[in-house]
Amino acid sequence: GLTDVQLEIFMGSLNLFAMVGSLSSHFFSDRYGRRVSFVVAAISFIIGVIIQATAASYGMLMFGRVFVGLGVGFGLAIDPVYIAEISPAAHR
User: 26, 31, 73, 90: which is deepest, by most CB within 10 A?
Assistant: First the structure.
């Protein structure tokens, strides 16, 4: 099993990696668009979950956590902008 410190780092790292993902999403979404950015966020999240599910070591578990965190941050930053863009002007 994981030690208490490893578990704390694992749980807290999601927020750190999500912040990095949300801060970098602006550059990516402006260049490639919101839909492509959503796809990248979803793929990153799925890859991270698969890596975490199959991890045999703490290092691999954290490596998967990087992908999950980036995907979460990307999605949370792009979602409100995308919804605002596709909603009719009367409902904004």
Answer: 73
